[in-house]
Amino acid sequence: MSNLNGAYYGPAVPPPKSYHRPSRSSGCGCCCGCLFSLIFKIIITIVIIVGIAVFLFWLIVRPNKVKVNVTEATLTQFNYTTNNTLYYNLSLNITIRNPNKRLGIYYDYIEAQPFYHDARFDLMTLEPFYQGHKTTNELNAAFKGQHVIVLGADQISELDKEKISGVYDIEVKIYLKIRFKLGVLKTGKMKPNIDCDLKVPLTTSNNGNSIDGSAFQTTKCDWGF
Description:
It comes from Lupinus albus. It is a single-pass membrane protein. It is found in: Membrane. The structure is a single chain. This protein has 225 residues and is of the alpha+beta class. The chain has 2 helices and 12 strands; from the N terminus they run H-E-E-E-E-E-E-E-H-E-E-E-E-E. It has helices at 25-61, 153-165, and strands spanning 67-80, 85-98, 103-116, 119-120, 124-126, 129-131, 135-148, 167-182, 185-186, 193-201, 219-220, 222-224. Strands 3, 4, 5, 6, 8, 9, 10 and 12 form an 8-stranded antiparallel sheet that branches. 16% of the residues are buried. The model has no long low-confidence stretch (mean pLDDT 85).
């Protein structure tokens, strides 16, 4: 067959096929977006429900802060010797007032620790109890003995000043495990602490009067969590 000007008269050649790979992320993007939107809506709903529940609880119960005061403090011995030993005799009366009309309080654990310029020198555990609505309970804590504590130069300087004045700065920390009771409902255990910064006059053992003539002043304690 003769070449007719280079033209080809055979069967038609089909056009080349173009392959389009489907995107794998298109379906996932839609599903993931829907999932995240659903989770976000659920979280917002839960936050709103919890907020409404807390507001209703406050509106019904109207909780008030429990009041703690040290009403009496007696210090008959407070001697720090050259061998870093502190000899002490400290007694405290502590009142706890629950002003709430509907909330009772379980004091499951009570531990009192006295400190002198951040140095702890004793501890004692007090009897647990239940406190009803609008009631006041009195706790008695007595610390007596000797304890080795190492005081720095600044602490020694403060101690010398307090010996002259006859009034000592003593901090008492009370560590608690408590539960609240509303009707038949009880909360889980909480672990707050109470800080009492006291100025306690040293009293003489024979007549019970303080060395400088001052008396202990009732001191309000602060709550912490």
